[in-house]
Amino acid sequence: MTRVAGFLTAFLLIACMGEIPMSPTQQWDGLDFRLETRPPHITQGMMEFLVIANRPGRKPASGMVIDLRVGPTGRWVQAIEDGNVGVYRRAIKVNDPKTDIMYVHIRRKGKDKDKEKEGLLEFPLDYGIKK
Questions:
Q1: Distance (Å, whole) CA 90 – CA 15
Q2: Of 47, 49, 75, 103, whose CB count within 10 A is highest?
Q3: Residue pair 63/107 in contact by the 8 Å Cβ criterion
Q4: What's the whole-model pTM score?
């Protein structure tokens, strides 16, 4: 009974939080990528960014190296893979959520294990501004 009560409490807390804004999904090399932030609405200052990567069927895509930067000339920082669940996280400073763009550089082994594939995605951060 205690597990059920704990589950219901957690479910109600999540439901009360409201909707968490997510960036539009982008594709690279057969994978889907999107961004979320913590706290959920993007403001100026330090924000934790979650890059969520999925294979077809919403299965997690893990084992990649993800680097992030804000703007085309910002400093690249490596995101930390959060287990094998397709989530990569890193805190980064946002200067202006209305105009800043998050650059996501992706590296992973290709089908030929000796070759590495690389890609770059751009996510405008205005998706997460509280309206």
A1: 25
A2: 49
A3: no
A4: 0.83
Q: Quick count: other Cβ atoms within 10 Å of Cβ 10? A: 10
Peptide bond just before 97 cis, omega within 30 deg: no
Q: How many residues does the chain have?
A: 131
Residue 78 — φ and ψ, nearest 5°? -80, 135
Tell me, what DSSP letter sits at residue 110? -
Q: What is the pLDDT of residues 115-130, one digit of tens each?
A: 889 999 999 999 999 8
Q: Is the separation of the CB atoms in 88 and 67 below 8 Å?
A: no
Strand, helix or coil for residue 15: helix
Residue 76 φ/ψ, nearest 5 degrees: -70, 135
Tokens of 46: 């330090």
Domain annotation for the chain: domains and CATH numbers: 20-128 (2.60.40.150)
In degrees and rounded to multiples of 5, residue 21 shows phi and psi of -65, 140
